[in-house]
Amino acid sequence: MPLEIACDESGSEGEKLIGGQTGVFAHAGVRLSLEEAAACLVELRRRIRSPAVEYKANHLLRTKHRRVLEWFLGPLGPVHGRAHVHLVDKKLLLANELRELIGQEVAPDDALLAVFNDVLRTRNRRDPAAGSFFAMVGDTEELRAKVAELRDAKVLDPLVPAILRAVEHWSGDGEPVFVVHDEQPSLKGERLAEIRSSPGLAGLKFVDSRTDPRVQVADFLAGVARRIAEDELDGRGDEVLTALLAPYIDSKSLWA
C-alpha cells in the first residue's frame, strides 16, 4: 500500500503574485489516518467552542485561541512530525524570475514587479503593460523573445511545483505516495498531466475538503502557516509561532 498524504493550500491566486489578497502561498501535506484527523477536528472544536458549521484556519488565528494554536503546532499536537509545509514568498518568486530574465539583481520595486507580473499573465502580446515593462528594463529583440518564452512556459502559479515538491518529499524514502488533495479547478490538461507523471506518485484524487477530515487538517495547517509567514515578512512576526512552525517548513521553500 502506498503512503497516503492529504494536502491543501492557502493563498493560491493563480499567476497573480503582486497586488492580490495574499503575499505568501502555502501548501501543506499531512500523514494522518481518517480516524486521527477526525479526532483532531473534534478536539479543535472542543477547545475553540465556536458555533460555526465549518472551522477554518482563521478560528485558530484569533487572539483568544492562541493557546489552541500553540497546541496544534506544538510537540504534543496532532500534526507534529507528521506534516510538511512548502512556502512561497510570491514577490520573491517574481523577483527571481525577473533577475533570471534580465541577468542582474532586481530591487524589490513593486511597480516594476507588478508590470512584469501583468506582462507574463496576459496572452495578448500587445498589452499596454508590455510597453511599460520594456520602458523600465530596456527594449531589445532578445529580451522580448525571452519574455515570450517565459510567458508561454506558465511558470508563475506555485501550485503545481508545490504538489510536485510534496510528492518528492513524502516519497523520499522510496515509498510511493498517494495524494488526496482538495479540489483544484485550475489543475487540468498539461498541468494535471505533469503532476500525474511525477516520479514517486502512486495516485492522485481530488475531494471536497468538507468530506475528508485529513484535508481539513491540511487546510488548517496551510492557513496558519501562510499567516505566520506573512506576518514574519511584514515585520510583525511572532517569535513563538515562527519557532513552532519552523519544523514543518520544507527546506526548499522560497521564503527568507
UniProtKB/TrEMBL annotation:
Pfam families attached to this UniProt entry: DUF3800
Q: In its UniProt entry, what is this protein called? A: NAD-dependent protein deacetylase of SIR2 family
